[in-house]
Design a protein that fits this description.
The chain is of the alpha/beta class. It has three domains: 102 residues, Cobalt-precorrin-4 Transmethylase, domain 1, CATH 3.40.1010; 80 residues, Rossmann fold (3-Layer(aba) Sandwich); 91 residues, 4-hydroxy-3-methylbut-2-enyl diphosphate reductase, catalytic domain (Cobalt-precorrin-4 Transmethylase, domain 1, 3-Layer(aba) Sandwich). The protein has a five-stranded parallel beta sheet, sandwiched between helices. Strands 3-2-4-5 form a four-stranded parallel beta sheet, sandwiched between helices. β4, α3 and β5 form a beta-alpha-beta unit. The two termini are 16 Å apart. The structure holds iron/sulfur cluster. The site of iron/sulfur cluster has 14 residues, from α1, α4 and α8.
Length: 288
């Protein structure tokens, strides 16, 4: 059994920088708490806890001197709330997320109605919308939601995608909005890192040599789930968080196992899964 990694997988630049910033902070003796998972990967969260930087779900729960804002970003008001509570901020928000904060603010200033395509419970989307007047935006992800809204009342609409989405999956939703009002613009907000991982996963899934695919990532990672969805369109694909989740029976008769990982999956977890696969089937790693 050979293992073939996708041409592009794993940590994106935003997550790599966030991970580094927190590790440097901890190594320098910093004491802090991360608001929400620094990245959506339970292994990384555990690693941070081991370094003394725990995860909390609300600002009020921070007892340490510093609050860490994750790569997904936070509503702007959270910065002032943290300050009011006497907390220092270690901000690891990805610069692409900040670009969307800026672009959506500009669009509001130009009288656009904002539409966010994404999950209203996702921290990134909460970051964009939490502080806004609810009459100024919608969050949609399903076609029935898009059909139920009277878009004609908004002369100008600007559409923003949650960075980690597969835009093609939401084309029908966006088309409904575009068909109901005259001026609809799409902001180019799908993150290149996510897209590169997705494109490489597609190539891996269509590779005739590959029999089955393992996708590695956290339970709450939206981008990992999307990779899995792409892979299973063409091949049997399994989503795992680490080597312990692998089941030997998945690989019965398989000559080549494809491997990819979400953009919040650390390198050492990917290596661990490959090593387990190697142990299961005397794998010969096929990646360079
Ligand atoms: S997926 Fe893209 S937007 Fe999200 S943290 Fe990574 S680089 Fe930033």
């Amino acid at each position: 059994m050979k293992v073939k990694r996708a041409a592009k997988y794993g940590f994106c630049s935003g997550v790599r920088i966030a991970d580094l910033k927190v590790k440097r902070f901890a190594a320098g003796g910093g004491r802090g708490a991360i608001l929400g998972q620094v990245v959506h990967n339970e292994r990384v969260v555990q690693e941070m806890e081991n370094l003394g930087v725990r995860t909390v779900e609300e600002i009020a729960a921070v007892a340490e001197p510093t609050i860490v804002f994750s790569a997904h970003g936070v509503p702007p008001s959270f910065h002032s709330t943290a300050k009011t509570q006497g907390l220092q901020v270690l901000d690891t928000t990805c610069k692409f997320v900040y670009d969307i904060h800026r672009e959506s603010k500009d669009a509001l200033g130009d009288d656009y109605h904002l539409v966010f395509i994404g999950d209203p419970r996702h921290r990134e989307v909460i970051g964009y919308t939490n502080d806004l007047d609810p009459s100024k935006y919608h969050i949609v992800s399903r076609i029935d939601e898009a059909q139920s809204i009277d878009w004609k009342q908004y002369p100008k609409i600007k559409i923003f995608y949650q960075t980690t989405l597969n835009a093609e999956e939401f084309e029908d939703v966006v088309k409904v909005i575009e068909g109901r009002t005259d001026t609809v613009e799409r902001a180019d907000t799908i993150c290149y890192a996510t897209k590169e991982n997705q494109d490489a996963a597609r190539v891996l899934a269509l590779d005739p040599e590959v029999d089955v695919i393992v996708v590695i990532g956290g339970k709450k990672s939206a981008n990992t789930k999307h990779l899995w969805e792409i892979c299973r369109e063409s091949k049997r694909a399994y989503l795992v968080q680490g080597g312990d989740d692998l089941d030997e029976t998945w690989f019965t008769g398989a000559d080549v196992v494809g491997l990819t990982a979400g953009s919040s999956t650390p390198d050492y977890v990917i290596d661990e899964v490959e090593a387990r696969l190697a142990a299961m089937g005397s794998a010969v790693p096929a990646h360079p």
